[in-house]
Amino acid sequence: MTGQTANFVDYLFLLLQQFAGGPGPPENNLMRFGVPTAMWAVLIAIAWQRQRGGNHPRERLLLWGFGFGFLREAFMFLHVSLRITHPEVHETHAFLALEPLEHALALVSVVVIAGAFIRYILDDRKRGETYLAVGLAVTALSYLVTAPWWSRTVRALPGLQFHQTWTAWIFHIAAAALITAALALIRRRRGWLRNTVALALLFFLLGEVIILANFATQRRYAHRICPIGNTLHILAVPILGYVYLREQGLEKRRAEQGLAAYRDHLEELVAARTAELTDTNRKLVQEVVERRRAEASLTELSDRHEMILNAAGEGIFGVDLEGRHTFVNRAAARMLGYDVTELVGEPSHTTWHHLRPDGSPYPEAECPLHAGYRTGAVRRGEDQLFWRKDGTAFPARYVSTPIRHDGALRGAVVIFQDISDEQAAAAEIADRTSELAVQATLAATISRSLDLDTILNTALETIVQALDAEAACIYLAEDGEPLPVPRAFRDRRGAGPAAHRRWADLPCNDIIARALAERSPTRLDHWVEVQGMGPLALIGVPLIAKDSAVGALAFAVRAGNHDLQHPDHLTAIGQQIGVAVDNARLYLETQRWAEELAALHQASVHLSTTWELTELCPQISREVMTLLGCSSALIVIPDDAAEGAIRIHTAQAVAGDHTTPAITPQDRAWLGHLTRESLPLVIAGDAETDDAAASSALPASRRERWGVRALLGLPLRNTDHALGYLLAMRATPARWRGDEIELAESFADLAALVLAKAQLHYQAERAAALEERHRIAGDVHDSLAQTLSYLGHHVDGLIESAGRGDAAQVIASSEIMRGVLDETSQQVRQLIRSLSAKPAPPKSLQALLQETLAQAASLGAPALSFHTDLQAPIHLPLEITTQVLRVAQEALANAEKHARARHVRLTLAQEAEALVMTVSDDGLGFDPTRSATGGSDHFGLSIMRARAARIAGQLTVQSAPDQGTRVILRWPITDVRGEHPPSAGAAVEAETALMDEVR
To answer: CATH 3.30.565.10: which residues of the chain?
Structure first.
């Protein structure tokens, strides 16, 4: 292994030692035991929550397993902490004697977790309990064997370590054996759960094997082996947590699939019932047609084919004008319960048609069959009951056809059929159709709103009407237990508290409890009477959503109106209402989240209106009072001007309603301590809920002086230091709800972010001011200083010309100086405007050049145009941008004043590693080689060259008389990126060239 590879490997093992511990200083093991302690605590919380949500035997075992793991890791974390902080406590015999207990806790944790998953994965309770019994027995035996011996040994040999003795071998060998046995048991199953648990157990096993290897090598390679083994032990814990993450995802997917399947089932059921009705109607129509054909045939063959009549399945008989049977086929006699001989010659009406359905006498004159053979009219129907010999009756479909001979009425032939089964089937179809209609109506009504009260009242109104109920109420449930008072109540006269009082005697709580316990529709075994309405039946239906009871429905019906023949119909109604209640609760929770987010957004908008701390801090106090409904608030900000000093800003809800806290030196010290330590504080002002530490933080004297009873304190922290501390106070004792604390913590994060931005803004303003001073100094140097130097030389020449008496030269020099003074005055005014203008947001070089052209056009410049092939925006440092724009302005001014151009074109391009700006015009042009004596335009060219030199660039002027002028500025891109700033020598050379030209 090369030296570099060895160093890298050593570096990796150093990282493992810092994370997973091992040989070395005790503090190396803080992360080793602290991280698993936190992870075990998270697993305990998840297992506890799942156990509370239902009967989960696996979670009960896992709670014990996770708890033992947490106790072991917490014990070792305390062990290491005491070694660091109180070495003398760690070295005591009593403390060292606890090491067998630590190993026993670790072994019990693994055994219980493995046993829980063996029972769950194999679905074998006996095998899981056997494994647990063996594992716990081995653990107890190991502890009983090692603990007494170690307790005596550690007193005799204080320097001896537990892991250096045979006692540690017992625990690690037992752990390895038990984990191997668990892996062997669960290998019979397949699936992600088996694989995940096997991976976690394998990590535990490898950790134990590595520790045994360390013992076997007499810890010669402990600095390598121990970090690896400890890392495997730590990684096994989050792998167990993955089981819960995966199971929660699978449970959610199964719930969604169940809902979709139920919806599809309802649609299929409606389609099936519709198809059945259609088929029945088709059959009825077909049967009527067939019966008509049969009637015609039977009328023609009745006197000649008695054998055929007896073979017919329908009942057929003939009557004379007196209503006596002339013939009866065997089917008719069988249906009526007589022999054929008992009916022939007997009166038909008084024999089997003498009573109405209610048992009252049926006069023959009102009988439609009698009217048929008396009047000769054809009679048919399905509304008559035929009575058997034994006194029972059956509904019949009949057709009475007159018999005529030679035009004279001789009697009638009656064909009838027992339609009991057909009516029962039709009634069943009607019931099912009615049930589906009720469910469809209920779904349509409760789906129109997400308001819980609207859903419940609408559902009760539909149930009272559709189920013919006298009264109905809905109880909501929390954690599977019904609340004592119904959330909604309705009877046939109305809804609300008045209806509830009218039916207060109904034992709704009993039926609700039974329905929730049995998880199915149920009915009281006895009848109840309310306000003289007679006996009523009370029926309870659980409201189920996602396999959980969210409440129950109770409704009262008159005796005999509802006998629970179709409980699946009521179950479907309960599930519909349960899903609607669950959706409404989810909507309310989502709405609350949305309101909190909106409040935080509004607070963010308010806090973004200023970056001044003197305005921002009171604004933060006011916003937290608005969010939490507090009477006052206080924010503490560390004072950067003095170490340990603080600044305090207070606010109150209404002037005069609450006294601003009077801050004493002791209060300032306490607030400073809270700010520096970033300690959260929750005080509800209730002795039963506040702990001693919270009460001592806000004693009675401070409460009276500040006028507060409840207090919530949150630190305002940046990533690396404390920015301040926020206190929200209430004048009355009130417990802080969990959502209020979460909202306050979110606002504290927002306030900390705003404070950090305000500090950054302050620093940015200082930097911008410094940068602006440098820019102004450069502008003054490039314009005013050079102009004054130029004018000084002209003044010397003017004095010499005046001494010689050369008046023409004096006038010429004066005109030149006046022109220079005018241009300088314009530059000074432009500089003043730039200083008084508000800082503009950063713009690209292309946009700034276009704005320069627009400004020149507004002052009466010739036709201007801009062209560039550079698509990407170019952003330059302020110094370079200023010099480039000044050169462009000077070139445009020269084209307007001196060249008298009609068109000016400005282009921007890139050549190799340089940017090139060109200003070309079609004006008069000039000779660049001509002497610059007395030429103010050439003085402007000198200034442009000086500006080019400040950015390490080069200015080129191409011109000839009557040929126009091209001013080309080229500067390197490296300067734009800030890699090679322009040297001081280049600026000095430009200034020297300017002075030479002036002379």
So the answer is: 844-999
